[in-house]
């Protein structure tokens, strides 16, 4: 029995092209299936803000805070800017004594923001009271200072339950 042949030149030219397209389509589907099986049903949640803030060299910041008072970092870790953190340093050792506070008095809520009295450890709150840095609200979402390699100071911004997130299926 004789094998069938394609009689027209167009058919003979198109046959390998169609076979190649079919091969790559099947290969693409197989690879897509493998990738889907490997990824499973895991979901990844990302926030639009960093997890921590790099402040800088621990020795320079220690000198700055000891000479000029605490430093305010407005709107950290949020896209809307409502969380302001105060970084303070106590003692002469740049590796120890770092502490963070929220920029409102401990006996008030976040709507009572403070303004620093320049060059001091004191602040004026929304009721024009003078409060010391130690009287500010302690962090409640896990914010704390971190020193890496005995050189670089970071502020870990902790949990941010009100931040917008995106869940991406992987």
From TrEMBL:
The chain crosses the membrane at residues 12-38. Keywords: Membrane, Transmembrane, Transmembrane helix. This is Unannotated protein. It comes from freshwater metagenome.
């Amino acid at each position: 029995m004789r094998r069938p042949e394609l009689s027209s030149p167009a058919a003979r030219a198109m046959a390998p092209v169609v076979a190649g397209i079919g091969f790559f389509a099947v290969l693409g589907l197989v690879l897509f299936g493998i990738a889907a099986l490997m990824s499973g049903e895991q979901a990844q949640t990302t926030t639009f803000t960093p997890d921590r803030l790099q402040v800088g060299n621990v020795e320079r910041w220690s000198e700055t805070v000891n000479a000029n008072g605490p430093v305010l970092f407005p709107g950290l870790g949020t896209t809307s800017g409502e969380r302001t953190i105060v970084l303070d340093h106590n003692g002469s050792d740049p590796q120890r004594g770092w502490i963070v506070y929220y920029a409102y008095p401990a006996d008030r809520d976040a709507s009572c923001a403070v303004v620093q009295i320049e060059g001091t450890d004191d602040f004026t709150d929304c009721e024009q009271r003078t409060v010391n840095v130690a009287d500010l609200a302690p962090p409640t979402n896990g914010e704390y200072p971190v020193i890496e390699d005995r050189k670089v100071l970071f502020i870990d911004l902790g949990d941010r339950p009100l931040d917008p997130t995106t869940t991406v299926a992987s």
